[in-house]
Design goal:
The structure is a single chain. This protein is an alpha/beta fold. The chain folds into 2 domains: about 160 residues, SPOUT methyltransferase, trefoil knot domain (Alpha/beta knot), CATH 3.40.1280.10; about 60 residues, Orthogonal Bundle (Trp Operon Repressor, Chain A). The chain has 8 helices and 9 strands. A 5-stranded parallel sheet has the order 2-1-6-5-7. Strands 3-4 form a two-stranded antiparallel sheet. The protein starts with a strand and ends with a helix. It binds S-adenosylmethionine. The site of S-adenosylmethionine has 18 residues, from strand 5.
Amino acid sequence: MKIDILTLFPQMFAPLKESIIGRAVDKKILEINVVDIREFSKDKHKKCDDYPFGGGAGMLMTIQSLYDAIKSVNREKSKLIFPSPQGRLFTQNVAKELSEEEHLVFICGHYEGVDERLFSLFEIDEISLGDFVLTGGELPSMVMVDALCRLVDGVLNKESLESESFSNGLLEYPQYTRPSSFMGLEVPEVLLSGNHEEVNKWRAEQSLKRTKERRKDLLKKKK
Ligand SMILES: C[S@@+](CC[C@H](N)C(=O)[O-])C[C@H]1O[C@@H](n2cnc3c(N)ncnc32)[C@H](O)[C@@H]1O
């Protein structure tokens, strides 16, 4: 999968070079390019923001540099995404849907956002991380890239995804590692029993119990 991220703050994307996503890039399962929108500005000072018509607080990202930056990466099969508090909600299902695309282009808004005409010029999927307002689209893009890239074939082994929270509509069961006893707290015996059938049964029960306790809404969706 290829991902282009268009931003005014390319240096914010260093974390994508680390850990599982970084390794998948090294193995060429993923190609992630960070594109500096400022390089496309025709303004002599490379300015990419201006005051909103009609007045009001803050600055807006101007359309020319955004338009040219998108044009430089957009292909027939590209899917354009604009992280926005006004978009549809990002969930594990949306991550799965995006992980099946060939080419994603994330357009990071900043300041008060972007000139609205951008959405008339391109077909853009607006996606929100939740009902709160962040400073820019950089962190939400990184969150979405991380979540969807884990689901791309070859990035993680299939087994580690199967039981993960939301993959079957439930939260994952609790997990433990060595030592089996710590400050008087013991690991549930069944996990030390070596009986895989019993372990699976216990995990299924715990997964359901935890979902009932913490996220009843997920159980309703499962019906
Ligand atoms: C300060 S916000 C602009 C908010 C905008 N003026 C509004 O009230 O809807 C700047 C940028 O951060 C990103 N952003 C902020 N909150 C977000 C959220 N909850 N989900 C996704 N992106 C978000 C968007 O790209 C947005 O254009």
